[in-house]
TrEMBL record:
Keyword hit for tRNA processing: no
Transmembrane segments: 325-344
InterPro entries for this protein: Bact_2-comp_sensor_kinase, HATPase_C_sf, HATPase_dom, Sig_transdc_His_kin_internal, TPR-like_helical_dom_sf, TPR_rpt
Pfam families on file: HATPase_c, His_kinase, TPR_12, TPR_16
Name this protein carries in UniProt: Tetratricopeptide repeat protein
GO MF entry, a single one: phosphorelay sensor kinase activity
């Protein structure tokens, strides 16, 4: 989302406050957001006392920008809405439009794209002149359309913004827009257009003597690799690497590993994958340290509050020495509360032990000896046949699958992105041992797989069941996984073209195939549904009406309210 290169023009405050606004703006531009926030709050209070509505509107508008930079979304939204309360119809359209743009950006960051579009369209309705304010609104609206997957409006709005940027001689804005377009074309697999857009963005930045954009270099490298120009793509990844942040390095190193694998440079691929793993571990450690610091701060605050509460209770007890009967009642109540607390804590511990037991059982299902022995046997066969490429691919999938399973063995939830990666590795391994098996994984383009979470190790038993029991002995077995959203749920559909639901199972739609994970999965779902308001829904039925091979379709509806593990 484009937010920072253009600033909307506003109505100037009263002359007496202009120097203070200038000072606050300087603090904001120099990155001193906290100091700027204090000064803008002071300006808002002064304007309220003097009833200067223009200064009030500007002060709250600037506070919105400060909170936006500090990623305090609720405070930013409140500041922008407060600014609108002091808007004067027909007198301050630029300031009002700037507030609308700010609200649109906040809603976009919160992934509420429908509301973001509403407010950005409101700003465009006020900004009829082709100036930098209108360009700012168009650039942000183009980003919203790209996020929602609205292909028609995405291209049209980007073209409008690019034409206006060219007219206003704003090449840096054009560079940002071309980078966004390269990302859009990558999503639609239009590699030539992605390459052209990324090159145009880099050319504009170079003409302005600006440093390389890591995102643009990564987009260009990825599009080149996908279009077959692997070596050139690898060069762009390497150019971006020294400039990248830690999170950007993680993606670049993974792309370098995959690109070298495509080029047959297996040693280089392994080396970059090791670097990727190291960076990933560093990021995880930093997140862990931050979480520990937050918990420690909360603990210290809670401890202080408990000491204060204890002192207050002792003081009250002294004042009520003559009321022994009331003190006795309070002691009894305290004992009862303690008993209830201990009982509640005991129940929580037992619940955690049950969940841990279920995870351990799921881990045993995924790492059962038969699966591991088969995997090692396939590796042995590839080595015996001196098939280096196949052995490298198989080893990479096998090691990555084992690592992912072990990494998630002690957490409650995982991201959909990592769950799909585990399933893809598992199916690849099964396919290597059974050439007649094929699989397809369909994910809706607009689905934010990294932001959606689900209970860990939930889907693999269903996929294993489809492979081992569903399409077993099928000449051309096929398994399909489809991920979409419906309402407030993630819908997962796992289908196979096998022999369907056994008649021995009573032919009921809610009976699972026979597999090692059957009772464990039921227990896992039951535990989740017991602890959460929104339940996981499961439905199993024949996929088709074919008499011999109707296939099986497993439908899972998982709430989108599941959060990442802490």
């Amino acid at each position: 989302m484009y937010t920072g290169l253009l600033q909307a023009q506003t109505v100037l405050p009263a002359p007496s406050t202009a120097p203070l606004f200038s000072k606050a703006d300087s603090l904001l531009l120099s990155g001193k957001t906290d100091s700027a926030a204090v000064l803008f709050h002071q300006l808002a209070q002064n304007a309220l006392h003097s009833r200067d509505t223009a200064a009030l509107q500007k002060a709250w508008l600037e506070l919105g920008k400060v909170n936006l930079l500090r990623e305090k979304w609720d405070e930013a939204l409140n500041s922008y809405l407060t600014s609108l309360q002091y808007a004067r119809p027909g007198i301050t359209p630029k300031t009002t439009a700037d507030a609308y743009i700010g609200i649109g950006v906040v809603y976009s960051r919160l992934r509420n794209f429908a509301q973001a579009e509403v407010y950005l369209q409101k700003s465009l309705a006020l900004l009829q002149t082709e100036d930098r304010d209108r360009l700012k609104a168009l650039a942000n609206l183009a980003g919203v359309y790209m996020e929602t997957g609205d292909n028609t409006h995405t291209l049209a709005t980007h073209q409008q913004a690019l034409q206006l940027a060219a007219k206003l001689q704003a090449p840096l804005v054009s560079a940002v827009l071309y980078t966004n377009l390269s990302n859009y074309y990558i999503k639609t697999n239009n590699w030539p257009a992605a390459i052209s857009s990324a090159r145009q963005s880099l050319h504009l930045r170079d003409s302005l003597h600006k440093p390389l954009s890591v995102i643009t270099c990564n987009n260009l490298g990825y599009a080149l690799v996908q279009s077959g120009k692997v070596q050139e793509g690898l060069q762009w990844y390497q150019q971006a690497l020294p400039l990248a942040t830690l999170a950007e390095k993680k993606q670049l190193l993974l792309n370098l590993s995959n690109g070298n694998t495509s080029a047959g440079n297996y040693q280089q691929a392994i080396a970059y994958f090791k670097q990727y793993d190291a960076v990933k571990d560093t990021i995880a450690q930093k997140q862990y340290d931050q979480r520990v610091a937050e918990i420690a701060a909360k603990y210290e605050t809670a401890d202080k509050q408990q000491r204060i509460a204890r002192l207050e209770a002792e003081n009250k007890t002294r004042k009520r020495q003559l009321q022994q009967w009331l003190t006795g009642s309070l002691i009894v109540l305290a004992l009862l509360a303690g008993i209830l607390y201990l009982r509640f804590k005991n129940m929580k511990v037992r619940q955690q032990l049950e969940q841990s037991k279920t995870r351990r059982q799921l881990l045993q299902v995924q790492l059962n000896p038969h699966f591991i022995f088969n995997a090692l046997h396939h590796i042995q066969q590839y080595i015996y046949r001196n098939d280096a490429k196949s052995s490298m691919t198989y080893l990479n999938s096998f090691s990555r699958l084992i690592r992912l399973i072990l990494e998630h063995s002690d957490v409650e939830t995982t991201s959909l992105e990592e769950e799909i990666e585990m399933l893809e590795h598992y199916l690849t391994l099964q396919q290597s041992g059974n050439p007649s098996l094929s699989f397809t994984i369909n994910t809706a383009p607009e689905l934010p797989t990294a932001d959606i979470h689900l209970p860990v190790m939930l889907l693999q038993p269903f996929v294993e069941n489809a492979v081992i029991h569903g399409v077993k002995n099928k000449a051309q077995g096929h398994v399909t996984l489809t991920f979409t959203t419906t309402g407030q749920h993630l819908q997962v559909v796992i289908t196979d073209n096998g022999k369907g639901i056994h008649a021995a199972a009573g032919n009921t739609a809610n009976t699972l195939h026979r597999s090692m994970g059957r009772s464990i999965v039921n227990q896992r779902i039951a535990e989740f549904n017991k602890a959460n308001k929104q339940a996981i829904q499961l439905k199993i039925e024949n996929a088709t009406t074919d008499a011999d091979y109707p296939g099986t379709a497993v439908h899972l509806f998982i709430p989108l309210t599941i959060t990442a593990p802490e």
